Amino acid sequence: MGFIPGAEGSKTILTDGVQVDHISENTVGHGSRVKGISDPTTYPVLIGDVGEIIAATPVNVLLTNNASSDAASLALTSGSWLVYGKIYFERVTGSDLMTQVRASIGTSSATHHLPSQGFLNVATTDAVCPTATPRAVTSNVPFTVYLVASVALAVTSTVRANGTNTSLFAVRIA
Fold first, then answer.
1. Strand pairing partners for 70?
2. Exposed e or buried b per residue across 55-86, where buried means at least 16 C-beta atoms within 10 angstroms of its C-beta
3. CATH code where residue 62 lies
4. From CA 15, how far away is CA 62, in angstroms rounded?
5. Secondary structure in 3-state letters for 108-166
6. Distance separating alpha carbons of residues 163 and 112, to the nearest angstrom
7. Exposed/middle/buried for 93, CB within 10 Å: 0-12, 13-18, 19+?
8. What percentage of the chain's residues is helix, strand, coil (to nearest 5)?
9. pLDDT more than 70, % of the chain
10. Which one, 70, 94, 98, 118, has least CB within 10 Å?
């Protein structure tokens, strides 16, 4: 059973849905400590530990009308991960409306995970930032996850997934 790390004394959701008010050395039994949670200075989270966090470095990606593109990708080691992502869509040129934006997390490049997550119907010329539904993924070999973006436009304009405000990260849960 894994958990989503949080500060000691905060609510922490375990992967089986059980909620506890506090994680400490006594919670996990026999005086053992949860690395990075009980005392992050003395017991830091190391590569391969539950609670390890890996983040992508997204770049600006120009989007074509009704085509899926990778806004970011993240290479993960074997294990179970909870992956989070959001995409900041912004119009670069033109004045037409973005009528639909999608953000999803999957294991196939430039392919929306079905059913598509982070699906948002909009009618805006402003920037929008949908969050993809967090996704739990498990593999016994190293693999890559993708934050996939697509946009539907009323007329041809240039829209991009802004790398500065787009994020993709994963937390090891087992």
1. 148
2. ebebeebebebeebbbbbebebeebbbbbbbb
3. 2.60.120.760
4. 36
5. CCCCCCCCCCCCEEEEECCCECCEEEEEEEEECCCEEEEEEEEEEECCCCEEEECCCCC
6. 19
7. exposed
8. 0, 45, 55
9. 70
10. 94
Instruction: Indicate the number of domains in the chain.
Output: 2
The one-letter amino acid at 117: Q
Nearest CA to 118 out of 139, 148, 138 is that of: 148
Whole-number Å distance between alpha carbons of 115 and 44? 37
Give the position of tokens 């829209």. Answer: 159
Give CA torsion, residues 118, 114, 69, 142, to 10 deg.
110
Q: Which amino acid is at 83?
A: V
Task: Please write the tens of the pLDDT for every residue from 47-93.
Answer: 888 889 999 999 999 998 889 999 999 999 999 999 999 999 888 88
Judgement on whether residues 60 and 44 belong to the same structural domain of the protein: no
For 3, the domain range is: 1-49
Q: What is the spatial distance between Cα 113 and Cα 115, in angstroms, rounded to a whole number?
A: 6
